[in-house]
Structures are given as structure tokens and as C-alpha cells.
Amino acid sequence: MSGHSTLVTTPAAALDIERLRRDFPILDLKVNGKSLIFLDNAASSQMPRQVMERWTKYRSEQHANIHRAVHYLSETATAEYEKARLKVQAFINAGESRECIFTSGTTDGINLVAHGYGRKFFQADDEIILTTLEHHSNIVPWQMVAEERGAKIRVVPISDRGELLVDEYRKLFNAKTRFVAMTHVSNALGTITPVREMIAIAHEHGVPVLVDGAQAAPHLKVDVQDLDCDFYVFSSHKLCGPTGVGVLYGKAALLEKMQPFKGGGDMILSVTFDKTTYAPIPAKFEAGTPPIGEAITLGAAIDYLSAIGIERIAAHETDLLDYATDQLNRMPGIRLIGTAEKKAAVLSFAVEGVHPHDVGSLLNDDGVAIRTGHHCAQPVMQRFKVPATCRASFAFYNTMAEVDALAASIARVQKLFA
Amino acid sequence: MDSRELYQEMILEHNKKPRNWGLLADATHKAEGLNPLCGDHLHLSLRVAGDTVEAVGFEGEACAICKASASMMTAVVKGKTRADAEQMVQEFRDMTTGKLDPAAPHHLGRLTVFAGVRDLPTRVKCAILPWHTLHAAFAGTNTASTE
Predict the structure, then answer these.
(1) B12 touching A (Cβ < 8 Å)
(2) Sign of CA dihedral A379, A385, A386, A390
(3) Radius of gyration of chain B (CA)
(4) H helices within A126-223, ranges in order?
(5) Residue A411: pLDDT above 60?
(6) Given pLDDT bands bounded at 50, 70 and 90, which one contains residue B3?
(7) Closest by Cα among A316, A342, A340, A322 to A395
(8) What three-state secondary structure class fits B73?
(9) B62 to chain A: nearest residue by CA?
(10) Which of A231-235, A292-296, A369-373, B102-106 has the lowest mean pLDDT?
(11) Residues of A with catalytic function
(12) A355, A412, A416: which to substitute to probe chain B, counting the most B Cβ within 10 Å?
């Protein structure tokens, strides 16, 4: 024996997909007599039994309004709601839990910042930078505040592969630039943007950045401190959680100087008809009764995903994407739209001579659920000169066999239209 | 219903070779039709002399159901009076929303190939859009939307 020791590492165990699939009752569904093949996860993902059970437990044993009464249930619900906030904090590695605000979803979070920050601080001729990749929910709120304040929107262009042109982005900054709002992952193309680098560039100019993480949070490890983003927004229902709840992360110093979005109960310290004093964050931005059970259930979804491991989820989804990309590239008459170097598990494509809507309807006959349309990202469609695309988007519970079924179903559509 | 039943030979053929494709240079009536959710987008032009549709042409970007519906519509309304064409708009709308009494006489003829869309709620708008657009062109409102 030599004196050398050998470091033995075991590769991270691959996901046991068949076991995981048993957690999702909906995956047993038959559609048109065929097994459901759910490839519309970018729109909303499915919920595992463990997360549903958390909702049932809350409704059965823990529900009351929070932050109010002194009775047992109110105290329990309040404690569970705040525990969910801690889970969110850990999930995105926020510095403090009070920087994590429960919203009704990504759209709500962006509107909150557009109102709370934009309407308070933007002035005439100020400039807001958006990107071509944005979902309408990260365009329209900024247009609304820009119109009201007389501010201007500047747009970062993309390459033919669907990647943001960082050099062009750099050139957009000037003394009037006040804000950047950009996506972390494109919902229409799957492009993972160089968000960390782009935030650093904005900060060189003293400009805060909001990141739309709706598509990123389910697929990538998000670390808001490492990104150094000023705001980060995402939704629960794309994370195997319920609809109606989402998260806005904001740096405490910014959240504190913003104006509240909605007025009401729970967001005040004291109210007289002469003056109302707002509560400290996060309560300042959580007016009214929040989605208590939904937030707690989101906490359970975060536990579920974290137990599997976001990195392992990402690895499997990348395998699915690579396999599906390869399968579709082999088929004649298929054009992939969005071929960025770094992509999350979204595959947008066009079938030559067949409108996406027809593709979607015919795939549904085979039980295959994809999204067709403009994906609420019309600027992306305009950039690629298509009215709409077909989009297959994968989750960790999808299988290679389902990718094969997608390809076979597309081939049948091509045959029908030949 | 299996949507494959809807994609019959006649619809596929009209989708591939739409009749009356192209806009009229001497149109008296025009309208644009849009399904904002799915992106079907049509332009329709008519030349109406007296009370008769003398010529009709269309263009656009649309799914097979919408394009075939537009193609067959243009073929059938050419030479018809405005009143007869409007009557067909009503009958087509009723058929695709399940309100047409199959026993009652109607003027749809081969257009009954679209009857199946009544069981595909997401596709009804595709089939109806050209007809809404025709109605808008007659009415002079210039735009039609199924939203």
C-alpha cells in the first residue's frame, strides 16, 4: 500500500423518474383515450400529492386570518405563513426574510415595483431598459408608468439565436437611464440570459435591476445575493405550487423607500383620517388578507423541489432538452426558434406549412399537451417574423419516451398536411 | 371529438390552395379580422355593385381551419346579394356554436364540413373569423375580432 489516499466520489444519483411520477396523480390522466403527455410546464406545472396534502392540512387544521387575533388558529396560521417566508428566503438565498414579499404572482410583483418604485421616482425623459425577450407582463406595466411619467422605453435587441446582445445593452445607458427590467429565462425561447453580468453593468451606472424569474425559479438555482439583483419576481404555480401566490424579492433599502402598491389592512402601523403610518416591510406591501394557504403550500412545493435538488432537476431537464432538440433537428420541415447556447427546457418550433394552432389541436388528439401561440411575447414573434410558435416545455417528471411521442405525433401532423 | 375528424380532405385542400387569394385593387368594402389569442389575421376585400358581391379576395396568416373557412366563404358569397351573404354569416355562426337546427332548411351546403368545430371550443373562433370579417366589411366597421 502506498501512502496515497484515494478520494472516492460518487456521481450524483440520477433521478428516479418513474418513482417521482407516482407523486403526480394528474400524470395518470387519459386524454382522448391516450396517456397524457404534459409538455406545457412553462405555462404552469403540475402539483405532487405531498404539496396537495399540505393544502389539505392547512384547510383542515390551521386556517384562520393571520396577524390579527390571539386565538390558537390565528397564531398557528401566522406562524406557518411566516415559516413559508423563511423557506422562500432560503430557496433564493435572500439576506433577510423581510425582503421576501408574498404577491399574487409574477405579474403582481412587477406591477408592485412599477408602481412602488417607478411612479415614485421616474420623471419626464427618464429611460427604462427592457429586452426583446420580455413577456408582456414585464413590458406593459413599464409602458403604463412610462406613459404617465413621460419616461421612455429602450429595448435590448437579440441575435438570430435568441441571445441578448450585451454590447448593444451597454450602449443604451446614459445619464437618463433609471431602471432595467429583464427576464432570467425567456418563456418563448428558453434562452438563459447573462443576468449576472447585465446587473453588474447596470450597477456601474447606478441603475437598479428587476429580474423576471418566472421561468428560471423552477429550473435554475437562484441566488439573489450572488446575482446582486435589486428585485426578483416569480410565481408559485410554475414551481409545482398553487396559483394565486408569488414572490417579490427586493433589497430592503429599496423596498423601504418605495411607496406602497395597495392600501388596506395589515400594511399600516396606525390610521387616523389625518395621517396613516405604513408598516415596515414586508407588511407594507401585503395589504389585505394575503393568500395564506397558498403561501404555505408554496412552502411545501419548495420543500419538495429542494428535496429532489434543483441541480438534479436542471440536469434531467437539460438531458430532455438536448434529446428533444436532436430529435426535432433530425425531422425535415421543422424549424427550431431560439437556439441559444444556454437554454432552459423550452423548445419553440415551427412545422413548415402547418400553422401552430393546427399542430396543437392535432397533438392533443394524441394526448400531447403543448402551447401554441405568441406566448405573451409578441416582440419575440415579431423578431423571428412568425405569428406564433409551437412550444414544448419540460419538467423533471417528463421522460425521453414522452419526447419520442412528441416527435411521432408531429410526424403524423406532417403526414396529414403533406 | 377527435380534431382529426375536422381536418377532412376538403379543409386540407382549401388550406393548401386557398381560392380568391389576394386583395382587390378596386375594392368597395374592406375589413381586417384578428384573433388576438391565437394570431389568426385576415384581410378581406369586396367589390359590391348595386346589391351584389361581384368580387372578393382575401389574404392573411391563419391556421388551416380559418384559412379554409375563408377560402370556402369567398367562393360561396361571390355573386350573392348582400342580404343572402349576411344570411349565411348568421347560419354559419349558428352552426359552429351549435345553435343551428339541423332539421331546418339552410344555405350552408358544403360548409357543413365545419360543423364539427362546435365540439372544439378553442377552434370555433378560427372557423368564424372570416365570417365576422365579412360582416364587418359590409357594415363598414373595418375590423373584426372574435374576442
Answers:
(1) yes
(2) negative
(3) 14
(4) 140-149, 166-172, 195-204
(5) yes
(6) confident
(7) A316
(8) helix
(9) A355
(10) B102-106
(11) 376
(12) A355
ipTM of the complex: 0.88
Cα dist. A308→A92, A299, A321, B137 in Å?
Answer: 16, 15, 19, 58
Test B3 with A355 for CB contact under 8 angstroms. no
- Which grid cell sits at A125? 425623459
Q: Exposed e or buried b for every residue in A257-275, given b needs 16+ CB within 10 A? A: ebebbeeeebbbeeeeeee
Residue type for B3, please?
Answer: S
The answer to whether the beta carbons of residues A388 and A356 sit under 8 Å apart is yes
Neighbours of B147 (CB within 10 A): 7
pLDDT at A37: 98
Contact (Cβ atoms closer than 8 angstroms) between residue B11 and residue B34? no
For residue B62, which residues of chain A lie inside 8 Å, CB to CB?
355
Nearest to A357 among B4, B6, B63 (CB): B63
* pLDDT, chain A, mean: 95
Tell me the C-alpha distance between A416 and A3, whole Å. Answer: 69
pLDDT band for position A4 (cuts 50, 70, 90) = low
Query: Is B39 within 8 Å of chain A by CB?
Result: yes
Q: Specify whether the CB–CB gap between B92 and B34 falls below 8 A.
A: no
- What letter would DSSP give residue A5? -
Amino acid at B100: L
Residue A295 has which C-alpha cell?
Answer: 403561501
| Residue among B12, B40, B65 whose CB faces A417 most closely | B12
Calculate the alpha carbon distances from A297 to A61, A377, B56 in Å.
Answer: 14, 29, 57
The whole-number pLDDT of residue B1 equals 63
Q: Which residues of B touch A417 (CB under 8 A)?
A: 12, 15-16, 64
Give the residue numbers in A contacting B (CB under 8 Å), as ranges. Answer: 32, 354-358, 361-362, 364-365, 372-374, 381, 387-388, 416-417
Mean pLDDT calculated for residue range A374-383: 90
Q: What is the DSSP letter of A174?
A: -
- CB-CB under 8 Å, A357 with B3: no
Query: What is the DSSP-derived secondary structure letter of residue A367?
Result: T
